Amino acid sequence: MAEFTLPANSIVKTGKTYKAAAGVTNIKVFKVYRYDPSSGANPSLDTYEVDMDTCGPMILDGLLKIKNEMDATLSLRRSCREGICGSCSLYINGEAHGPDRLITTCQLHMRTFKDGETIVIEPWRAKAFPVIKDLVVDRTAFDRIQHAGGFISVNTSGNTIDANAIPINKEDADESFMAATCIGCGACVASCKNSSAMLFVGAKVSQFALLPQGKVEATNRVLNMVKQMDEEGFGNCTNTGACEVECPKGISLENIARMNREYLAASLKG
Ligand code: SF4
Ligand code: FES
Q1: Per-residue pLDDT tens over the stretch 187-196
Q2: Would you say domain 9-133 falls under CATH 3.10.20.30?
């Protein structure tokens, strides 16, 4: 049944303010989403005045400075800090990974924002990505979709054909490689008004569908991955293309179209 009201604890309240030290004039103001579901309290936006003269050049440096020097209770994730793991993913001033295109949160420079500008930092918010604490969300729904079919089984009995011996035309190889650059960050879900994961799943299906090695399990792969996607609570594609715009890796909507073709063909076989 459709629900038209939000739970009372979804209202974001004004939180605490952490002022810069006396005499500090070069500041940027961070407003950061704070939420601990186990507390029963509403989420809040805490305000931090960050001293830019002693801060690194990236947005992530600002958040780490807050955690290390102002408020150790803040939870956030990051790992590679070079756009390949997707763990840093955040909403920044209302845009997934911030206002710059084709980068992840950890690649976003502080200089993108004007002096004195307030920077609002929030986690992804989608039913299938529940907030664990503050800026950390649970994206294991993506892992379960991958486990449902995002792999190729290879007979390793000793008779495996060398991958380089299988001819693949360049256009397909390039498109497959492009699809494989999806880092599973979830920006496509976060930017979709229907929290659709179809760009992610489309990329994972396309990566294998374009290669001869992926054709063997193609039917079950697309059926199982789409089934898992639906079970996780992701919505349907809205055809508005927000996912493609916000994707840090430039994954194209063509991958959704390819997944739909694969799905139709697999359903007719089944
Ligand atoms: S398709 Fe793009 S936005 Fe979506 S998970 Fe992959 S890299 Fe992130
Ligand atoms: S920390 Fe790995 S993509 Fe940002």
Answers
A1: 999 999 999 9
A2: yes
10-residue stretch averages of pLDDT, the chain, 270 residues long: 65 96 95 94 96 97 98 97 97 97 98 92 95 97 98 81 86 97 98 97 98 93 98 96 98 98 93
Residue-level pLDDT at 106: 98
| pTM score of the predicted model | 0.94
Beta bridge partners of 122: 91
> What ligand 1 atom has the least distance to the C-alpha of 203?
1
| Close Cβ partners of 43 (under 8 Å, ≥ 6 residues apart) | 9, 10, 11, 12, 13, 33, 34, 35, 131
The ligand that comes nearest to the alpha carbon of residue 105 is 2
Of the candidates 241, 142, 231, 144, the one whose C-alpha atom is nearest the C-alpha of residue 191 is 241
Ligand 2 mean position to 31 CA, how many Å?
21
Q: Average per-residue pLDDT in the chain?
A: 94
| Paired sense of beta strands 131-133 and 118-122, if any | unpaired
What the block records as the tokens of 251 is: 């994954």
- Of ligand 2's listed atoms, the one at least distance from the Cα of 185 is 3
Backbone angles phi, psi at 29, to 5 degrees: -100, 125
Query: What distance in Å separates the CA atoms of residue 245 and residue 258, rounded to the nearest whole number?
Result: 18
Strand, coil or helix: 32: strand
Domain 140-156+167-269: which CATH number of 3.40.50.300, 3.40.50.1220, 1.10.1060.10, 1.10.3720.10: 1.10.1060.10
* Rounded distance from Cα 249 to ligand 1 centre (Å): 7
